[in-house]
Structure formats: C-alpha cells, structure tokens
C-alpha cells in the first residue's frame, strides 16, 4: 500500500512539474488564513480576489483561503505571514495597536464615522501603515472596513449607567478601553467564538457591526441593537514581501490589480451591508434603535477621552496623520461650499 501511495505521489509531482515547465515559471501555491467566517462579505471578497489572481496568472499564482481561523488563529496570522509560515493573510488592523498607535486610528469612536470619512482616514493612514509593515517584510495589498459599530445588549439600555458591570465582549484594545470607560467588564473574544461565549454567559453585551451580529445570529442570545455608528475598523490584507518578490513582474502586477479591485469592491459591499444587515437584525427579533441622547452624549465623551489618550501615544506621526485627515475633510467642505 505504501509503495502504491509513493508511486501515486511521484506521478503527481511529475504531473505538477510538467505544468510548471509548460508555464515557464515556478507556480506559487499560497495559503491565506483569515479570521472571519466563510459567509462574511470580507471572506467572499477575498475569495473573489483569489479567483481573480488565479485567472490573471493562468493558475501560476493560486491562493487557498482558510477562513474563520481554521488554519491560523487571528492572533497569530500577522506573525505567520511575517515568518513565511503562510504567504498571505487577513487581520484586523487595529489589533496591532500595541505595536504602534497609528494602526488604531480607525478604532477611535466618532473620529471617522461615515464611509466618506473612513476613506479619507485610510488615505491618510495608508502610507504610515504600509511603511511600518514594510519594515517587517509585509507588503500591504488592501484594506476594507466593517460596517459602523453598534452596541448589542441583552437588556434595554437607556443610560450609560445601564452598562455598569455588564460583561462585555471586545475584539481589540480600543473596544476594551471603550467598555472600561463605559463601566463594563471587557473580555476579548474572536468572532467564531461569539455564540458560545454568549450562550454560556461569559458575556452579555458587545460592540460590533450589523454584519457580525447577523453572521453570529445575535438574535439567539441578544435582544437590543443600538445603532451608534461609532467607527469603521478595517481588515487589512498583507503578503510576505519575499513571497511577493519571488513572483514575476507580470504576476506581481496581476496581484496588485486584483487587490485594487478587491479594495473598491469591498468598500462597496461593506456600505451595502450596513442597512441590509441592520434590517435583518430587526427582522429576526432584535429591537433596533438609536442610542438615547444621554447615552450618545456619554459615548461622545468616551470618544473624546480616547482620542486624547491616542494622540499622546501616537506622538508626532499621529499628529501628522490627523493633520492629513483634517486637511482632506476641510478640502471637501470647501469644495461643497463653492458648489
Ligand atoms: N466585526 C469584527 C471586527 C469588527 C466587526 O464588525 C468583530 O466583531 O470582531
């Protein structure tokens, strides 16, 4: 049996080698771990990106997507790409805030809370993020935001005091700080583990998008969704720079073109999801509403405090980033005023 298998393996290797020779270049087989479920629009967008790369390179660059932390857990994805254990991957950019505060600008409540502002923030953030990650031999391909973040609770919340002592699911340092400042008790939990964490009572509230609420069937364990539209955190797709450089120039261009299309498509999908998925929450029995004025006011104060804390940590580069972002906002106001 063993020798038969060996023989089969040899045949397969020979067959692959023939394919390689006929293409005149080494075929790259890339593994791509991602943290979020296969059904999430982020993962579907990534699959489309992989298909596009495959088609544009005649199969010479083939990317296998491994969703939901199935190959590498979210917390390890960045280092797995960096070390070359995998060639390419996706992770939540703001998870890297302990390395550099600039990665976290898109997780600050109410700094950039619309798609338009988020795009401008990414324009301002991108060169910083790309440069820092390039220093770690990671090439940034593209980033796509989640829909705006809202607060899910088991019981109705009319003032911020209602969150006091509530066990609150978080996913990065910024949401942890937000929960803390709201008087809640943060616990970091990855998306695939959300349903179990709620049904076993480890947590009883969270802040996330309508998309993640729907993907997790939040109505099975939560009653209320407050549409705070606090911020739009982004997922970033990075490739190991050495793996990228080992491609031919044409193949690299094919990857960059597919990435540019994935970024455009991803932002559109995200925006489309916002209202559709919020409606889905309601249709499944979640009470959807805006936060009360008192709660909004308290959240604004938390946002202001977090922005101050961030500026202190982010230093001169943080100021430069904010300056670039504000210039874009002003430029737009000027041009709309003169229309
Ligand atoms: N979903 C991810 C990140 C932000 C979002 O909307 C999560 O809840 O972990």
Keywords:
339 residues, alpha/beta, six-stranded mixed β-sheet, three-stranded antiparallel β-sheet, 10 helices, 11 strands, globular, disordered N terminus, binds pyroglutamic acid
SSE inventory with pairings:
Blueprint: H1 2-23, E1 28-33, H2 41-56, E2 61-66, H3 74-83, E3 88-92, H4 115-134, E4 138-145, E5 150-153, E6 167-170, H5 173-181, E7 185-188, H6 194-199, E8 205-208, H7 210-215, E9 224-226, E10 234-240, H8 241-245, H9 249-283, E11 287-289, H10 293-337
Parallel strand pairs: 1-2, 6-7, 6-8, 9-11
Antiparallel strand pairs: 3-10, 4-10, 5-8, 5-9
Helix pairs in contact: 2-9, 4-10
Structure commentary:
The chain has 339 residues and is α/β, with parallel strands linked by helices. The protein is 51% helix and 16% strand. The protein is built from 10 helices and 11 strands. It has helices at 2-23, 41-56, 74-83, 115-134, 173-181, 194-199, 210-215, 241-245, 249-283, 293-337; strands spanning 28-33, 61-66, 88-92, 138-145, 150-153, 167-170, 185-188, 205-208, 224-226, 234-240, 287-289. The protein has a 6-stranded mixed sheet with strand order 7-6-8-5-9-11, with helices on both faces. Strands 3-10-4 form a 3-stranded antiparallel sheet. A two-stranded parallel ribbon has the order 1-2. Helix 2 links the parallel strand 1 and strand 2. Helix 2 (41-56) packs antiparallel against helix 9 (249-283) and helix 4 packs across helix 10 (293-337). The longest helix has 45 residues, at 293-337. The protein is globular and about 60 Å long. The N and C termini lie far apart (77 Å). Mean pLDDT is 93; it is low at 1-23. Residues 92, 146, 171, 191, 208-209, 211-212, 233 line the site of pyroglutamic acid (PCA). Pyroglutamic acid binds at residues 92, 146, 171, 191, 208-209, 211-212, 233.
């Amino acid at each position: 049996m063993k020798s038969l298998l060996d023989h089969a393996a040899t045949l397969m290797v020979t067959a692959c080698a023939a394919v390689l020779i006929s293409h005149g270049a080494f075929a790259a087989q890339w593994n791509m771990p991602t943290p979020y479920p296969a059904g999430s629009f982020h993962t579907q967008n990534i699959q489309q990106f992989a298909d596009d790369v495959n088609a544009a390179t005649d199969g010479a660059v083939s990317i296998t997507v491994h969703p939901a932390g199935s190959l590498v857990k979210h917390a390890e994805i960045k280092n797995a790409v960096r070390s070359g254990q995998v060639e390419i991957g996706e992770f939540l950019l703001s998870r890297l805030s302990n390395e550099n505060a600039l990665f976290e600008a898109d997780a600050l409540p109410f700094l950039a809370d619309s798609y338009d502002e988020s795009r401008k923030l990414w324009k301002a953030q991108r060169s910083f993020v790309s440069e820092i990650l390039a220093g770690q031999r990671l090439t940034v391909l593209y980033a796509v935001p989640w829909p705006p973040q809202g607060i899910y609770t088991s019981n109705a919340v009319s003032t911020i005091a209602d969150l006091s002592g509530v066990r609150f699911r978080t996913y990065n340092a910024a949401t942890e700080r937000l929960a803390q400042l709201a008087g809640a008790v943060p616990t970091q939990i990855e998306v695939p583990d959300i349903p179990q964490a709620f049904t076993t009572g480890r947590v009883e509230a969270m802040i996330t998008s309508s998309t993640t609420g729907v993907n997790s069937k939040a109505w099975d364990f939560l009653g209320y969704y407050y549409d705070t539209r606090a911020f739009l955190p982004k997922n970033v797709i990075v490739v190991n720079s050495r793996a990228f450089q080992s491609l031919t120039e044409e193949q690299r261009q094919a990857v960059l073109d597919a990435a540019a299309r994935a970024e455009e498509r991803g932002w559109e999908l995200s925006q489309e999801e916002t209202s559709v998925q919020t409606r889905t929450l309601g249709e499944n029995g979640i009470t959807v509403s805006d936060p009360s004025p008192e709660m909004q006011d308290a959240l604004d104060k938390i946002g202001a405090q977090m922005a101050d804390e961030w500026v202190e940590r982010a230093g001169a580069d943080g100021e430069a980033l904010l300056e670039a972002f504000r210039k874009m906002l002003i430029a737009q106001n000027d041009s709309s005023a003169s229309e």
